[in-house]
Each structure stands twice: as structure tokens, then as C-alpha cells.
Amino acid sequence: MATATTLDVLDAQGKKAGSVELPASIFDVETNIPLIHQVVTAQLAAARQGTHKTKNRGEVSGAGRKPFKQKGTGRARQGSIRAPHMTGGGIVHGPTPRNYAQRTPKKMIAAALRGSLSDRARGERVHIVESIGVLEAPSTQTAVEFLTIVAPGRRALVVLDRTDDVTLKSVRNIEDLHVINWDQLNAYDVLVSDDIVFTKVAFDEFVAAKKEVSA
């Protein structure tokens, strides 16, 4: 069985301020690519509104009479201006409102998240910080400068606890950065990000919640 690995905790200046253990049950499991693909596909499908709609020949505007008389015009006979082949007519086999949601067991969702986090951890792309460089007042510039040092990848995912409003206000408008609460963490957001940055409080709460579930 794999053992827990140790990861440095960085302070507001980007220097080591301590260390934590990454539980092997969360950050060092096998990455099941087909399972992750299925979970991510289901998540993206569930995000679709499904409100697309076209009108069929019974719904478009137009009279019910014949466009012109049956005989004597030299043209092909027509029964309605609402027919699909007529200009402004109904659409054949067009999209209708539907629900794209797929049933995905909770255990699969949890396994996909563990596999995604493990992949990033093995690539040394998981970082834990005491704060994002801001303490009392929000400062986007300070957060950008700090994250440039801690998370050098192009896209970063910042994981916070729900009470950290100062950090949220500092990072929410940064380009190519996504911020999320620890209890909303999912495989898709992990996979589309190059670096995962946990605050120490968010990391502790996330690990504690996962251990309670597995207990």
C-alpha cells in the first residue's frame, strides 16, 4: 500500500512555513482514465440547458390554404406554405427540449476526483499555501504576483473554504484562474487546470471530509 507523501506549506511570501501529509487514499491512487472520461462527460452533459427548439409545420406562422391553385400554373402542386420545403416553413426532425443529464453513481464521481488529484500530485502540481498573499484587504495584484511564483502553469485552480471572502474577492477576476470551494471540487475542474492551489484551511477540511466518508 502506498504511503502518504509530505508537501510543503508556503506562507504569504512563498517560503516554507510547514508541511502536511497528502493521504495516499486521495492523492496517490490509480488514475482510471475511462472512468474519469465517463464522469467528466456526464458532468458536461448535465450542464447543458437543453432548451433548444425549432418549430415544425404545425407551429410556424402561415395560412392553411393552398399557395396557388392545383392546375394550370405549370408549377408543382403545393398544399401549404408551411411545408418544410417552403421558405419559412417548418423544420423536419429539429431539436426539441430535452434533459441531457446522465446517471452517475457517487462512488464513480469520488473515484474520478481522487484519480484526477493523484495525477496532479504525481506531477507536483498540487500546492498548499497559508494564504494567497493577501491578509486583511482584497488585492488582485498581490494575488497575481503570489500565484505567478507558486503556480507557474497557465491555468490555476484555487480551492478555498467558504469563509475566506478576502481571498475570493482577490482572485475571482484573474484571467485563466478558477476559484472553487473545497466541497465543490470535481474532476473536470482539476483536469482543466495545470496547478491546484489549496489554502491550508481548505485542504484540512477537504481531507477530513473525505476520511469521514471512507471511514
From TrEMBL:
GO cellular component annotations of the record: ribonucleoprotein complex; ribosome
Region Disordered, residue ranges: 47-101
Pfam families: Ribosomal_L4 (PF00573)
Protein keywords: Ribonucleoprotein, Ribosomal protein, RNA-binding, rRNA-binding
Family under the similarity heading: Belongs to the universal ribosomal protein uL4 family.
Function per UniProt: Forms part of the polypeptide exit tunnel. One of the primary rRNA binding proteins, this protein initially binds near the 5'-end of the 23S rRNA. It is important during the early stages of 50S assembly. It makes multiple contacts with different domains of the 23S rRNA in the assembled 50S subunit and ribosome.
Protein name: Large ribosomal subunit protein uL4
Gene name in the database record: rplD
